[in-house]
Automatic annotation (TrEMBL):
Residues 8-63 form the HTH cro/C1-type domain. It comes from Saccharomonospora cyanea NA-134. One of its GO terms (molecular function) is DNA binding. Pfam families: HTH_31. Keywords: DNA-binding. This is Putative transcriptional regulator. SMART domains: HTH_XRE.
Amino acid sequence: MDTIGATIRRLRRWRGLTLEQAAGLAGISKGYLSKIENSRVAVDRRSTLVAIADALRVSLADITGDGLEIRDPDADSTVPAIRTALLDSDLDDSPPQGELSALLAETQLVAAMRQANQMAEVGRRLPPLITALHTHARQPEGLRALVSVAHTTSLLLKGLGAPDLAWIAADRGHEAAERLGDPHWIALAAFARTQAHSGLGAHRRAGTLARDALEIVPGDAIDVRGALTLTTGFIDSVVGDDPSAALDEAEGLARHVQDGNRHHLLFTPANVVLWRMASALEQGDYAAAATLAKSVHPTDLEINSRRTTYFIDYARALWGLRRPDEEVIALLAQAEKIGPVRTRSNAFVREIVSTMVERARRQAVAREARGLASRMGLLKTA
């Protein structure tokens, strides 16, 4: 797999743009773009990636890559069946398939398995579940389960490098929620849509969806309100606005939530800290992100998917602070241990590792970095 910098250079030349022209369109300096292309610096903000993609008139996925060389082949092989299930199912009346009670239990199971980074097994279980739940769309419980499964499906597909299909899954959940007509579930479906739009680089649209959903979410749905509020805060940081008000509000809400993971949103005080870290990184405030990381223990995050993100973002903060490579690699190793596909496919991790290998400041660290780079498909073989 090419580095992001090499991909940007290839796409820029394909578009017939000079460094100066592309940099100007992206709103960055020519020197900075040159360093990115030559892996002399790592891209450390989503807003930068989106700006470069817009300048080159390509999608965000065109730059970050689909990760085919490094994804779990077992998980990846489930995507065609998931696509078929989504495209072949609708909410029109069909003879019910399977017992609804069993499908509801399966819905909860696959959501928990995704949070545990069990991507391949989730991918295998989703197609028949998606198909069967559509046949129970006349019952409110069936529609609610479909909203939940659409959320699980969208996040899985996003992680497997299929952002367009992730959007289709999230929109299917929105369709089910609209038919149900319950503002609680409409707002929950909107959260899935915000994540799908962010995966496509459509951050402003994601922010609009989140704010619209906040207008209708019931007062007792504190976890849903909190997740949407966190989304608005993070989006503010991506587009250059101040996220502090939204993040402070979410922190206050988290103190009052009874079960922050009832919808598999993990809206807890510890997870709010993780969102604060992400916003600080997007603003380039690495010191704040590192300080926030020290304020929470990864076990407080409860689920492996969020723990993986914690170690990745902590590593990004230390990298931004130019801390020793040993410290950065140690955190990335912990992330890879509990979430190998999530870690290896992360665009920012790939940038850090490729830059680290290119620089190879210390041989011992270089060996560790090259090992991770190899598992990420970043090293060329003859």
